[in-house]
Amino acid sequence: MPEENDPKEYVDGRLTTGAYKRVDSLVKACVDAQELDRFDLDSICRHLQVFERQNRHYVSTSLGKLVNQGKLEKLSSGAHFYYKYVNNNKRIINWNDVDSDNTLPIRWPCSHLDCSEFGFSQSIVVSQGDLIVVAGVSNMGKTTFAQNFLFENMDAFDCQMMVNEYNPGKFKRRVQKMTWGNPFRENGEPKFTLVERHEDWKYAIEPDQVNIIDWINISDGDFYKIGGIMEGIQGKLRKGIALIVLQKNEAKDLGTGGQFSEHLASVYFNIDKNRLSVRKIKEYNGHNPNGKIWGFDIDGGTDFHFIRELKPCPKCHSRCLVNKIDCLDCHSTGYVDRELATA
Description:
Layout: E1 10-11, E2 14-15, H1 20-32, H2 41-48, H3 53-68, E3 72-77, E4 80-85, E5 103-104, E6 126-127, E7 131-136, H4 142-153, E8 159-163, H5 168-177, E9 192-196, E10 210-214, H6 226-236, E11 241-247, E12 267-272, E13 275-281, E14 293-299, E15 303-312, E16 321-322, E17 325-326, E18 335-337, H7 338-341
Helix pairs in contact: 1-3
C-alpha cells in the first residue's frame, strides 16, 4: 500500500492510486451527503471516479464498514447487490395537543342542471393533509370533475390549480360555460391561481390551500414513481389538501402507478365512460360509500347531470353479453340504474 502522502494519489482530481484512508474518506463523505440514491459498487465508483482495481476493493471495504455501523443497508435483487441509506430520523407527532376537529367542509361536484348529486357528497370526511385521487380514462370526465371541484370550493378556500395541458383560451372558454359560479372577486381578480406545471409538483404546493393537479403525467416504465411523488406532495401540506388527477387504462381498476397510487390516498375515485366508482374512502360518516358506483352525463363538457346510482346488471352480471349477444338490459355497459336492478 502506498504511503498516505504519496503524491501520485491524485491526478487531475481523480483518485487513481492511494491509501485506504483516502478512499474511505471519499466514500464516507459521499454517503453522509447522500449524493446518490440507492447504488451498487459500480455506480459509486463511477461517481467517485475510482477506477483502479485495488481502490475499488477499498470502496467495497468502506461500504461494508458503513453497513456494520448501520448507516447503509445491503440488499439483493437476484444476484445483484446494492446499498440503501438507513433513515433513522423520527418525527415525533404531538397528537395529544392538537385539535381533533381538523376536517374540512369540502364540497363535491354535482349537477347544476337537475340538482342530482353523487351519493357520497354528505358522507366523505376530508381532513387537513389528505390526498384525493381521481383516476380516469382519457376524455371521460377527469378534467370536468377537477374543474367542478375547483368551482365548488373556491368561495370557501384559497385554491390553486396546476395544469400541464395549458391553453389559457380553452380554459377561459370552459370557465365561461360554468355559469353557476363566479370565478372573480369584487376587484376583478380570479378567486383561484392557475399554474402550469409538468414536474416537481411538490415544490409548487401551497401548504394551506386546496391544491388541484390536473394531471400528473409519468413516462412509461416509471409508473412506480407515483408513490414517491404523492408522498412528496403530502409532505408539503399543512392545513391544505391535494386532489390529484391520474390517467387510467379502461381495463384497469387503478390509475397510473397501480397500487402505488392508492396507498396514500384518503379518497380514490375511478372514472370510466359515464361512470364514477368509489375505490376507497378512508373515513366517512354514516353511509359507507365504498364500492358504490354512479352514472352521469356531461352537458357541454362542463356540467354533470342525470347523476344516479348504478348496480351491476343482473342479467349479464357485468359481462355485457348474454349467450354471446349484446345485453339489451344494460346496453352492453355492464351496469343498470339501481332502481332497475332491484325491480
